[in-house]
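Re: beginner question about structure tokens

> Can someone show what the tokenized structure looks like for a real chain? I only ever see the sequence side.

Sure, here's an example I had lying around. Input first:
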Amino acid sequence: MKKNNFIKYSAVVAGFILIGVIIFVMISQQFEQNKPKINIENEIYWNLKNELKIDLTDDSGIKYYKITYNEGKKNIILNTEVLNGNDKKMTVKVASPTLDMFYKGIDTFLKIEAVDSSKWNFFNGNKTVKKVKINIDIKKPIANVIDNSRYIRRGGSAIAIVQIEDLNLKDFYISFNDKIRFELVPFYKDNYFVSLIAWDVNIEKFIKVNLIATDKAGNKTITKIPLYIQPLKIKKDNISISSNFIENVSSSVLEQSGEAIPVELPKRFIEQNRILREKNIKFLREFTLKKMDFAKIDKFKIKRFKRLRGSKTAAGFAEKRFYMYDGEKIDEAWHLGMDWASVKKAPIKVSNYGKVIFNEYLGIYGNTIIVDHKMGLASLYAHTSSQNIELGQMVKAKQKIANTGTTGAVMGDHLHFGILIQGIEVNPLEWMDRNWIKNNITNIIKKSKKTIDDK
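And the corresponding structure tokens:
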């Protein structure tokens, strides 16, 4: 009887111990069951020049990894290492294999194995194996300049028509001074593209304009776009700002824009003239790019833009304004457009066919209309008092769209007319010159089409 009780007691104790061991194993970090994570796409492109980087993560730490290159029956170990198991996150760098002349590039894979330091699986740890398809691409994209404008002026525009080709193309664009990116629009035939380029007046020095194309494997082609530069005459103006202007105009613009209104008048003006201006200009760039029409360009018919009828020029493009308050300079800014003054609430008509992409209040610009004319070109009409169009509406040349007014940061009734190239305000005088448009834009398009046809 006693022996039977002992056996039962021992069995109960053993059962409790077993349950305790099971619970310990299940909840202990030492026996965690989560497999390592291998962070790399299921299919990759590799140019065999750049190292591959593979991220490994695990809850208990990586103990071992091995990366093998597989091509048919050929297996090459590219990287393997036994670790102390303390690293829960690591990046493994993988150099390319040395391939012989018989390489075919068919059925190539990376086999990635990772084991963690967990004591699960009879102390062998958790294991993850991932197979990644490799597309080996050692050829750079084709990136040729077909034709482009001969000159560009600070604050001005130019055009470039290019050829881009690659089976694994990832990205392509035109870069100005490695600072500004200009998108390319499909042109005429497959693999050809066009872009208008702007030299932002805020960039003083011209360094270079490049056509850049990259593929999924990281191959990159950079082709120079040759442009001669022309000087820009900059007019400087001192403008006196009164307390009355700040209290009424600046305050109103800030309030309608949802901005804070500083108590001190000089700070209030700076908030409106510098801080809000920067936000408005940034918005113009981003919004116009977002709404840009990327439809293929075959023919590009654009007439010269005309000034407001019966108006006088109150201010021109690229005037450097110095704002004076009580005899001291408190701020400065570029004027990026043409100010035309006529009678109050004069009718505003568009010069070219286009689509209304913006019709709202925009800070210092007041009630503003933007019309898209395709190929990244848009016209801007600011300070309007009334609008005769709706968002998304197609407008025709000579169609009335609004009246002049005093909305925004203005001292009197007038129209601020601007030309935008992918959201950057450029010199409207170029686009008001029939000969300039012909020599620098439309003739380039015609010549490029002939060049493409002759290939």
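Each token stands for a local structural state, so reading them left to right follows the chain. The chain has three domains: 31-136, 142-231, 235-426.
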